[in-house]
Design goal:
homodimer, alpha+beta, 3 domains, elongated
Chain lengths: 618, 618
């Protein structure tokens, strides 16, 4: 396909003409294989013989729900044997695995699809041959009675994401010519697999084979199998993950009949074909492919459809047994010495945190948390001195597999026995896998969850400060001399400044400063805690008693952030006008204050830069 | 296994006793299944009957090269049929796929391992039955002559990561009792698959079956198959990815003989057993499992080994067809309006960049770049207005699959036709997959590579500035009045300052300021560009003519960063002592300078904070 890539130059100015490489590839497949005229339209059922041999549609559905379509992707055709895997999955969920697995085997038969031979226990070899598929229809009829077909039709519709109809002419033709299947059905009743009225079972089966689908439908149905049973377009969970993996298993070992070994060897993507001309292929966690072209080869598989599958697998090296991934997905592993929270700490708190920074370890993970990833992380934990808190920063974790979730939860249990608190931050806990982690860990006292990393770090810092006897909010700081912005000023200068100000009190949640307002005063916090937040709600800093806020008024005429009281708060407000006058009278004090301001900004800049360097380290 | 997790409380203070969940699980498996005494030691070869039925070893090798071991994991036993997949892979690479695939089929036989039946073309059904394995040994002997066995022994050693020996007693016993295999071999010569002397071929085969391995060896050998043919412990590429995926295919369809369909259905991990009591299982991109317990079931598979495989698959839901991953791995998608480079820009440059910030789009990706991920990214590109530069920030990309690499390269080709430059940053281009991207893109003029994101952004910014007529380095800035640090000072004040300074010139690469030196002067850059770098070599800023450097001397007594000339540079140096004296004489100018410094620091802080906010956005 390589040759088919260069896009026409004339597009150079039409950005909308940009195509994803996959679309170009599928276009090229359609063009290259349209010329392929080998094979013949199935005619053992007269109605099938009426199909237009030139029809050719390709569709590929991704697991994020995007559907590529090329050619006659909306042309309807009868699903035929492509219904087998879906009805088997439906049977597993409807009647329970034990019931179904005791009636139908899972070993390849090595025979053609319409073989009448049964296995050693007189059961069908597997659900992909007619005998097994008829047995599935029979089982569903046992459970659903006369509503069985409607039950199946609606289920197939959920796989496809739309209501599916029936080709009555093909159905009539199927039942008129279905003697071999009748023979198979009576064999099954003879061996006790079918208890029901054979003709009623076969009506369900023949109707099921006559359901109309398109290449697009086939792609979405396959993608639902590739996506853990969740239809990626509608988001509906159609069948259980168990049913999906077992269905893909029989597709792998028996999906392409006596061509199965060759198929997994060469293409390596679970697939199912139908004599109607359809082929669907489901690559787990990747894609669903559907194609329609009625010319069949000697195995009863669509000639062009096979070529599309082979080309896709070869060009992108998608053989399911050819996976390579990296176990290392820890992208940062540091302690609060490297990245503190945005809470401004007073000197004695800083001292405690400085000497105990190793007690809070932060591990940032990315990508998908797989069995390998989480095991790797687990092994890293013991390597460093024991922290009291481990924060797992999961902002960049796109998803977690069931194996990863299980290992994660087991790891938290392990930590519980060492009195280590595990803190999750940034998890999107909506997915079913996260629910597993939750289930397993909600009983644990050592697991906490903070949406924001900074909150997690601040909480852990507070625990450390408490443990080592540092009070957090209690203290009142009334002495202006302790205000870093005023460091180095003389007693009278401080006294005069104090006399210029007014003591204000604010209740919890009250907005003290609002963005874009003119900046007309600055504040010295005496008690309580305030938050500085940017428009958009991002917290820039948490400020405790003894620190100034609104001090940027010394540089800017307008407020660039909100300041909100966390709890009831008292502060000394000094009007900018008074402050300016004070600086006029004491130029050296004014310079000193500016120097202090520059110093405070320089310290914050160093902290911010080290955070940026940490976050952007290669 | 869940019950087995709580770790003893007494460990609470012994951090070293912390175990990874996977180790606890394997310990529990060993304990739980040791009591299992069903099955019997193979005795069709007298020597095998001498094995201790109680031996039980488990080993699991991860794809990052860590090896778990439990029980008798170092107990040697003969490899027997476990040699078949590895010798098949070796044959594929040694003689070429066409040659091997024309002599040996890949369809399951449905027969026991020692079946004498051949397929329709009188060829062995597949390489996992004795007939196919003997054919493999014959093919290798064709290629390697009398050195064939040594060639095989050394290859097996590369899979295991150590030299492997032979159990001569078992070998003697095998050849003394190997009549059925002789019959098979003569059948193969009769059908032309073996051209060689049958006895010489069988000596190779019998010796190959008598090679001594341990559970640990088996795990590493399996992990090499799971890891694309690269031994995860030694890092050696033992066989090609093609040979690996095809070998895993036949293991999947035929690895467990007539139990194969059941095996993939229930366990879903490609595996191979041997009558010596070993079982190995290879889960692609995840792990290799090896177990040793000589008690065999009726299929000739180790009873405890099967239980271990089943428990591992069930407990961690590792069925290979039960994969779930998320396609979305774009974690940031922004333009330089949100995050500019660390180059300090002069006002006219700032204006150009402000009005064209959409021309440089930055897309940050994480985790493993798979088929799904890259396709998703490709589809996002057309969505926004067309940029001139797209920077792919790959710092957090752990690895890329071949499919991902291919799609990425194809996407760059597509961009080339739209005159969009693709810039890779932060790639570790060592892996074979990155070499594919390189191969495909080195011919393209629109792909550039920068190790550091900031360099990539700065380069793109420069292109934008050039395009819109803004000069970069050329200009000489001699006027102190244009120095932001001195903004607002009067003419005489500036003149006096100028008179205090000395004009210095530095050659490219010269270090002007060194970290930890006392800070005794500040500089005003008149021409050229300097870099400010932290001790770790991290670039903090790039400074162009018209800006100050070393100005932090006004706050700190020591230098906290290096400043190095990028090119030949001229600057006005003002000694701190002189500067302090100047400020003594002009307190208001001094205050103004401090205010300017605070203003500059505030601007940098805002930039740094917005970068932190961008990088930590959930």
């Amino acid at each position: 396909m390589n040759s088919s890539h260069p896009a026409p130059r004339r597009h150079a100015n039409d950005w909308a003409a940009l195509k994803s490489p996959l679309r170009r590839f599928l276009d090229a497949c359609h063009a290259d294989f349209s010329v392929e005229t080998g094979g013949a339209v199935a005619n053992y059922i007269p109605e099938l013989g009426k199909a237009d041999p030139n029809h050719f549609g390709i569709s590929l559905a991704t697991i994020d729900g995007y559907v590529y379509e090329v050619g006659d992707s909306r042309e309807p055709f009868t699903i035929q044997s492509m219904s087998k895997p879906f009805v088997f999955a439906l049977a597993l969920d409807t009647l329970g695995a034990d019931h179904v697995e005791s009636a139908i085997g899972v070993e390849p038969s090595g025979d053609p699809f319409n073989s009448i031979r049964l296995d050693a226990n007189n059961h069908p070899f597997n659900p992909m041959v007619n005998a097994g598929a008829i047995a599935c229809s029979a089982l569903i009829r046992e459970a659903e009675g006369d509503g069985a077909f409607e039950y199946i039709r609606q289920a197939l519709g959920r796989f496809a994401g739309r209501e599916l109809g029936v080709d009555e002419a093909v159905f009539a033709s199927e039942s008129a010519t279905g003697d071999r299947n009748r023979a198979i059905a009576y064999m099954l009743r003879n061996s006790g697999v079918i208890k029901d009225d054979v003709s009623k079972v076969l009506e369900v089966y023949f109707r099921q084979c006559s359901v109309l689908v398109t290449a697009r439908d086939s792609a979405v149905m396959a993608a639902t199998l590739a996506n853990h049973g969740i239809n990626p377009v509608t988001g509906e969970q159609v069948v259980t993950p168990y049913a999906v993996s077992r269905t893909l298993s029989v597709m792998t070992s028996s999906g392409m009949y006596d061509y199965a070994g060759e198929w997994i060897y060469r293409v390596g993507i679970p697939a199912k074909s139908g004599v109607g001309g359809g082929i669907l292929a489901a690559l787990p966690a990747r894609l669903g492919l559907g194609s329609y072209s009625p010319r069949l080869d000697s195995h009863g598989n669509s000639v062009r459809g096979i070529k599309v599958c082979e080309a896709l697998s070869a060009h992108y090296d998608l053989h399911m047994l050819n996976r390579s991934e990296d176990a290392h997905n820890i992208i940062a592993d540091y302690d609060i010495g490297k990245s503190a929270s945005r809470r401004s700490r007073r000197p004695h708190e800083q001292k405690i945190l400085a000497s105990h920074h190793r007690d809070v370890r932060i591990i940032e993970l990315v990508g998908t948390l797989t069995f390998s990833n989480v095991d790797y992380v687990s092994r890293q934990l013991a390597e460093k001195p024991r922290p009291h808190f481990i924060i797992f920063d999961l902002r960049r974790v796109a998803s977690v597999t069931r194996a990863g979730a299980r290992l994660l939860a087991e790891g938290f249990r392990e930590l519980a026995h060492f009195n280590v608190t595990a803190i999750l931050s940034g998890t999107k806990r909506s997915s079913p896998e996260w629910k597993i982690v939750a289930e397993w860990t909600d009983t644990l006292s050592n697991v906490r969850n903070f949406p924001l990393l900074d909150d997690a770090i601040e909480w852990a810092e507070d625990q450390i400060v408490y443990r080592h006897g540092g009070a957090i909010e209690a203290v009142e700081m009334t002495e202006l001399s302790e205000q870093p912005l005023l460091a180095g000023l003389g007693a009278e200068e401080l006294a005069q400044l104090a006399s210029l100000g007014t003591i204000r009190t604010y209740h919890a949640g009250e907005k003290i400063i609002a963005t874009t307002e003119p900046a007309t005063s600055l504040y010295f916090l005496r008690s309580g805690v305030v938050h500085v937040t940017l428009p958009g709600g991002i917290r820039l800093a948490t400020i405790a008693a003894g620190m100034p806020f609104g001090e940027m008024a010394l540089l800017e005429g307008h407020r660039s952030a909100d300041v909100v009281a966390d709890q009831s708060v008292t502060a000394l407000e000094v009007l900018l006008a008074d402050f300016e006058r004070f600086r006029e009278q004491h130029p050296r004090a004014g310079e000193r204050i500016m120097r202090n301001l520059a110093q405070m900004l320089a310290d914050r800049l160093i902290a911010a830069n080290s955070k940026v360097n940490l976050l952007t380290a290669t």
